[in-house]
Amino acid sequence: MPMNHVELLARHQRQRDLVTVRRDDIDDNGIQGYVLAMSDQLVALQHVYDFRLEGLMILRLADLTDVECSATSRFQNDLLVREGLAQAVPFDKRFDLGSWPEAIGQLAREFSLLIIECEALHEPAFAIGRVHGVSGEAVELDYFNGVGQWEDERVEIEFADISSCQVDTNYLNVYRRHFERVALS
Predict the structure, then answer these.
(1) Domains of the chain, start order
(2) How confident is the model at residue 1 (pLDDT cuts 50, 70, 90)?
(3) pLDDT higher than threshold 80 for residue 185
(4) How far apart are CA 18 and CA 69, in angstroms?
(5) What would the mean pLDDT of 55-60 be, rounded to a whole number?
(6) What percent of the chain has pLDDT over 70?
(7) Per DSSP, what are the bridge partners of residue 46?
(8) Mean pLDDT of 67-90
(9) Where are the alpha helices (DSSP H) in 67-140?
(10) Taken in order 41, 26, 163, 180, is the CA torsion positive or negative?
(11) What pTM value is reported for the model?
């Protein structure tokens, strides 16, 4: 990735700007968010979608093709500040972004469910569940299907294939509450 993206991300992190990052080889849509932390491999964002804080997202820096803070982003940031939402962004949170094993390990200790995506594969992969184990090469997940049923077998995902990891999203939180209700009944 060109050095200017890293410099832009660092500047926007310091200034607490709302930015849009693009991954043209993976996704036609930009991802809007606040830059929370970076390493030489990964970037942590507070994802923002439709004026909602949409969880934390870790992306590979190598996949980024553009970083911008447009007039629209600045206006939307002002709206988020006026709505009181920007104050909830965890700008001071520490992230362990040295590698995927470290980042996923940290997130798994803090959040019960996560989403891991391998979007750059010939056949993109998506898994949602809880971390069972982390090795040097892969993460093993207990995962569930779209009807909220845990699968009997675990899935193993190689770190080299991971393009995105998300936690604390609205999607995940609805499932988390579902599993909490099921456990109580």
Answers:
(1) 1-93 (2.30.30.100), 99-185 (2.30.30.100)
(2) very low
(3) no
(4) 7
(5) 98
(6) 97
(7) 34, 56
(8) 94
(9) 71-82, 100-110
(10) positive
(11) 0.92
Q: What is the mean pLDDT of residues 79-103?
A: 95
**d(Cα 49, Cα 182) in Å, to the nearest integer?**
29
What is the spatial order of strands in the sheet that 66-68 belongs to? 66-68, 18-22, 31-38, 42-49, 52-60, 164-167, 114-118, 125-134, 138-143, 155-158
pLDDT of residue 147: 87
pLDDT at 4: 77
CA angle 6, 11, 17 (to 5 degrees): 115
**Chain center to CA of 79:** 23
Residues 107, 169: Cα–Cα separation, whole Å = 13
Other CB atoms within 10 A of residue 136 CB? 7
Do 113 and 128 meet the contact criterion of CB atoms below 8 Å apart? yes
The tokens of 142 are what? 């207990």
Using DSSP bridges, classify how beta strands 114-118 and 125-134 pair: parallel, antiparallel or unpaired: antiparallel
User: What distance in Å separates the CA atoms of residue 54 and residue 174, rounded to the nearest whole number?
Assistant: 12
C-alpha dihedral over 106, 111, 115, 121, to 10 degrees?
10
Q: Percent of the chain having pLDDT more than 90?
A: 85
Tell how strand 31-38 and strand 138-143 pair up.
Answer: unpaired
- Specify the 3-state DSSP secondary structure of 15: helix
